[in-house]
Amino acid sequence: MASETDKDDNGLLAMRGRSQCVPADPAAEHSPATLAAGAVLWRDKKIALIHRPHYDDWSLPKGKVDPGESLAVTARREILEETGLEVRLGSLLGKVTYPVRSRTKVVYYWNAEVLGGEFKKNSEVDELRWVTVEEARELLSYKLDRKVLDKAAKRQPTTTRIIYVRHARAHDRRNWAGDDNKRPLDRKGRRQAEALAQMIAGFYPTKVYSAKPDRCVATAEPIARELGVKVKVDREFGDAAENPRARFDELLTPGVKVVVSQGDTMPKIIAQLAAESGLDVGEPKVKKAGVWVLSFNKNKLKSADYLVSPLPLK
């Protein structure tokens, strides 16, 4: 029988605070690392635990990154493969690390809402149970998983989520003689835009908004195409806006929305929202194609998670 006893004996939890980050290279500080992603699955105030016959344990759904994936894409795929359930990703809980032979296992966890699907026994999972948080604490095989669960329970609930995206990389301004609003995405930017569409799909947004510059619209279009919606273009979401905060606040109604914006506007709005809610995000960084997942309850920011890059990890 396989074992993951090192998960408790030598595992570490990095989940402090309500603002988490997935760096561009999550494996860098743990080399050699094995990257994985999973989630705490919620339905009607209960969570799903899985039994893995290979380990004879009860744990949270998770799995390793496949080629061509970001961590958010991995979490959604692995949950579907192990449980048969389609989920909407929510707030990022953080990560756990523990040794597995000569490598370090690095697992990022999200909170996630179950939207549908049905469990069927498979080669990895032979049973799934819906349990209360208290029952889950008793059933889980690892102390480290119980700590993840405790963090997840604290991060519930939210009513509104804004997926706040900086446009992908465009051609260099210094080499562009025309109208700056017409400056297009470069080759890497087009790759970033397609990767954003795959990553953001797991949050199941229903509306996509964009600032007016072509590079913003070109970033938003693959996302909208993946979701089957149209992009709503509005200059008030970009650096040319007269009152970008007022326009942003109009979106704080229940649901999940995407806003593609620019590098001057985004840090200011994120900093304002965080200060008003007593949330420590430091000095918000926003790299091109970077994503801030902003979760609200009654118009108050509850968590702010930064996904630095949508590009595949391998």
TrEMBL record:
Cofactors that this protein relies on: Mg(2+)
Keyword hit for Transmembrane helix: no
Domain Nudix hydrolase, residue spans: 32-153
Matches recorded under InterPro entries: His_Pase_superF_clade-1 (IPR013078), His_PPase_superfam (IPR029033), Nudix_hydrolase (IPR020476), NUDIX_hydrolase-like_dom_sf (IPR015797), NUDIX_hydrolase_CS (IPR020084), NUDIX_hydrolase_dom (IPR000086)
A UniProt-annotated Pfam family: NUDIX
The keyword Nuclease is assigned to this record: no
Keywords, comma-separated and alphabetical: Hydrolase, Magnesium
Superkingdom of the organism of origin: Bacteria
Similarity comment text for this entry: Belongs to the Nudix hydrolase family.
Protein name (record): 8-oxo-dGTP diphosphatase
The organism's taxonomic lineage, starting at the top: Bacteria, Bacillati, Actinomycetota, Actinomycetes, Mycobacteriales
